[in-house]
Specification:
This protein is α/β, with parallel strands linked by helices and about 140 residues long. The protein has helices at about 30-40, 60-70, 85-90, 90-100, 110-125, 130-135, and strands at about 5-10, 10-15, 45, 75-80, 105-110. Helices cover about 40% and strands about 20% of the residues.
């Protein structure tokens, strides 16, 4: 899997290439999470087209399992791209996306500019960045 480390508003993010094997299971993201830890990335950015169709069908539990795995390792997940055909077809998915976007662990954004704005706003609102740092404000 081709990845690139990039800093967006002082936040290290690991960008996945749009081409590559589809992400269809929780086990498919373990290398990404490991790479994020190795490179010191707070977030992993995955193009929406990399996800298998099962990710967008909540009854399969694929999305929940993947999001939970990122949360377990305290690495943010940003799904980048147009998922409107999926959210139009599923009220449950639309609600899932809305709930994810209200938090600081998993975001669904249309492009890298929107991700940058979310990260910038997060930096302004809090001393840290990414899920690991935002939750450690004790």
């Amino acid at each position: 899997m081709t990845i690139t480390l990039r800093t967006i508003h002082d936040v290290p993010v690991l960008l996945c290439a749009p081409e590559g094997e589809p992400i269809a299971r929780e086990s498919d993201v373990l290398d990404l999470i490991g790479d994020a830890g190795y490179h010191g990335a707070a977030w992993v950015v995955v193009p929406a087209e990399r996800f298998d169709e099962s990710f967008f069908q909540l009854r399969t539990r694929v999305a929940g399992d993947i999001v939970q795995k990122f949360a377990q390792y305290r690495v943010g997940l940003a799904v980048v791209g147009d998922i409107s055909r999926h959210t139009t077809a599923s009220t449950a998915l639309r609600d899932f996306v809305r709930e994810c976007d209200r938090n600081r662990q998993t975001w669904f954004v249309s492009d890298l500019d929107e991700l940058g704005e979310r990260l910038r706003a997060c930096r302004l609102d809090h001393a840290g960045f990414g899920p690991r740092h935002l939750d450690d404000r004790r």
